[in-house]
From TrEMBL:
<feature type="transmembrane region" description="Helical">
    <location>
        <begin position="341"/>
        <end position="361"/>
    </location>
</feature>
<keyword id="KW-0677">Repeat</keyword>
<dbReference type="GO" id="GO:0005737">
    <property type="term" value="C:cytoplasm"/>
</dbReference>
<dbReference type="Pfam" id="PF03372">
    <property type="entry name" value="Exo_endo_phos"/>
</dbReference>
<comment type="similarity">
    <text>Belongs to the CCR4/nocturin family.</text>
</comment>
<keyword id="KW-1133">Transmembrane helix</keyword>
<keyword id="KW-0804">Transcription</keyword>
<keyword id="KW-0378">Hydrolase</keyword>
<dbReference type="GO" id="GO:0005634">
    <property type="term" value="C:nucleus"/>
</dbReference>
<dbReference type="InterPro" id="IPR050410">
    <property type="entry name" value="CCR4/nocturin_mRNA_transcr"/>
</dbReference>
<dbReference type="GO" id="GO:0046872">
    <property type="term" value="F:metal ion binding"/>
</dbReference>
<keyword id="KW-0812">Transmembrane</keyword>
<keyword id="KW-0805">Transcription regulation</keyword>
<keyword id="KW-0539">Nucleus</keyword>
<keyword id="KW-0963">Cytoplasm</keyword>
<dbReference type="InterPro" id="IPR036691">
    <property type="entry name" value="Endo/exonu/phosph_ase_sf"/>
</dbReference>
<dbReference type="InterPro" id="IPR005135">
    <property type="entry name" value="Endo/exonuclease/phosphatase"/>
</dbReference>
């Protein structure tokens, strides 16, 4: 489940003037959000715009009662604030069902710190990217026996499989498409590095454990980017031209080439090593953001297409329901998440099938 819950400080009458004040109040919305989460009962839950105080005092204790544990990090600005102000900073959270997964380690991805470390003299990297405090949060999970209870059970030695889960909240402003793209490239580079740390958590014979293309990755987030953007092109195709218009002809090439993304002089392209597909396109989900002045798909769930396959997807809210109820936009009395409605995905992890294929291949070879 991927869900931007719209943190309290952004749910204002100035932003959502069509929505009654009582609907915008966090005391009302948080109950509805938790009801949504509990209703769908996902094994892995990815949340954005969760306030620090709400994570520790509301979501974590409530979801622990339902058999989850979770990790959280606020946006980078929290480090510069007093404790009294830090509790209102929003960030990203990942929850997982403890009966099915155990947490191996977690990792915070701070885009402003990566921009500073890789600026290489680029004023654009320092003045445009470093000033945005968006983050990503990753968790390396390991499956337990109960994770296989709804499918064909693998060989006992294959039960404990690694799954790298990541959630991210990319910068929102359409005028900063370059920043969105650079942040996404940083994100993928960090995930590539994390796969190196996952060595020892994959048990398939013959598997190149250090190869990110063979890592089971579930990437969820509010990417604030449409399907025709450079961000989604880069994620879907694993490459993007260094001359892509979303870079705005700004001075990123040298620093990206040196420390953030693989670059080919032959094709003049940046690449990442993962093979991803998006579970959602506009054919399935016309919009994940439904406000008065903007409606579009900007939230996504990506998965490793060589090791995972979607079995089912949650569709959009019925367009007829919006018309019949004369809904101008969200938040709404029945839809508590302000601008981003949630996505839902069932995934069948078939790494065990790869093991069986390899096993029979050996038999045939003999």
């Amino acid at each position: 489940m991927c869900y931007n819950v719209l943190c309290d400080k952004y749910a204002t009458r100035q932003m959502y003037g069509y929505c009654p004040s009582w609907v915008l109040k966090w005391e009302y919305r948080r109950k509805s959000i938790l009801e949504e989460i509990r209703h769908y009962s996902a094994d892995i839950i990815s949340l954005q715009e969760v306030e620090t105080e709400q994570f520790y005092n509301y979501f974590l204790p409530e979801l622990k009662r339902d058999g989850y544990d979770g990790i959280f990090s606020p946006k980078s600005r929290a480090k510069t604030m007093a404790e009294s102000d830090r509790r209102y900073v929003d960030g990203c959270a990942i929850f997982y069902r403890t009966a099915k997964f155990s947490l191996v380690y977690d990792h915070l991805i701070e885009f402003n710190q990566l921009a500073l470390a890789n600026a290489e003299g680029s004023d654009d990297m320092l003045n445009r990217v470093m000033t945005k405090d968006n983050i990503g949060l990753a968790a390396l999970l390991e499956t337990k026996e109960a994770a296989w209870s709804n499918g064909i059970r693998p060989d006992p030695s294959q039960i404990h499989q690694p799954l790298l889960v990541c959630t991210a909240h990319i910068h929102w402003d359409p005028q900063y498409c370059d920043v969105k793209l650079v942040q996404t490239m940083m994100l993928m580079n960090e995930l590539k590095q994390l796969t190196q740390d996952a060595v020892g958590h994959s048990f398939r014979p013959g598997h190149n454990k250090a190869d990110p293309s063979h890592t089971q990755l579930l990437l969820c987030g509010d990417f604030n980017s449409l399907l025709d953007s450079g961000v989604i092109e880069f994620l879907n195709s694993s490459r993007i031209s260094a001359n892509h218009p979303d870079f705005k002809e700004l001075g990123y090439k040298a620093c990206l080439q040196k420390g953030i993304a693989n670059f080919s002089d032959k094709t003049n392209e940046f690449t990442h090593p993962f093979r991803l597909s998006t579970a959602y396109t506009t054919d399935v989900m016309p919009y994940s953001n439904y406000t008065y002045d903007f409606k579009g798909l900007i939230d996504y769930i990506f998965y490793s297409k060589n090791t995972m396959v979607p079995l089912g997807l949650l569709g959009p809210v019925d367009a007829e329901w919006f018309r019949e109820n004369k809904v101008l936009g969200c938040p709404h009395r029945d839809i508590p998440s302000g601008s981003k409605y949630f996505l839902f995905l069932f995934l069948f992890l078939f790494f065990w099938f790869c093991f069986l294929f390899y096993y029979y291949y050996l038999l045939l070879s003999v």
